[in-house]
Amino acid sequence: MKARVFITLKNGVLDPQGKAIHHALEGLGFAGVNDVRAGKLIELDLADGISDADIEDMCRKLLANTVIENFRIERLEPAA
Amino acid sequence: MKTAVIVFPGSNCDRDLAVALEQVTGRKPAMVWHQESELPDGTEFVGIPGGFSYGDYLRSGAMAARSPVMRAVKDAAGRGVPVIGICNGFQVLTEAGMLPGALMRNAGLSFICRPVPLRVENSQSLFTAQYDSGETIMLPVAHHDGNFQADEATLDRLEGEGRVAFRYLDACNGSARNIAGILNTAGNVLGLMPHPERVIEPAHGGMDGRRLFEGLLETVNA
User: Could you list the residue range(s) of the whole structural domain that residue B155 is in?
Assistant: First the structure.
């Protein structure tokens, strides 16, 4: 079973990397980008029986720094 | 004073910190590897050095903060043993939950490496006894992720409780309220982005960092 964890900066937390990406996009001539926020995607390959609560625990204890980051867990269908 | 320096894979200021501690205390610190689960008996001071522990994987300091030795460091801090985290060590302390806030990418995105002026905001702490409040000192910074951020309530609390130990005189990395170093509630844990261990003898171009270690030694021996 696989799960994805999306880690994003909380609203209001300055994101210098997102800003730099934004500037680079503008430099390449892409108009109409209002804002850019950069985050992380972590893919977990999990044994059966790992619960959502377990994954949430992993996020709180290591994968995300909840002082500055939010996380969202997405479970993927097991491969056929 | 019996001192210990924690060494993670990727630490690179551990030797500088060890030299500074040996010069000031007259005895070599114990170098404690990250996989140790205990500090040497009778450790009276713990230093967490700068560097790039675990290659800054995930977030700066994130992996080091969860290593076995950090449980021992947390326990020691809980018993009142002074702990300083310098640069990456500061990042480790925030990731370990021993200090509030987080250290993010510098606002200007560049790695900055130069001496910067700091104001000593609190000269009453274990670490700042040899400085005067409001005094300006010069310490070098060398970091990419030194941008201290915390929510407004936390920042207000830090200010109100005198826990902002050092502040940048000029904005250098985007830190909230120009904070360069903070203390924990009990006052025995200091996180500091600039490097006091790099200015301890005249050949370094300054001695302003030496007084931090001397002041600490005096307080511990008092």
Answer: 3-221
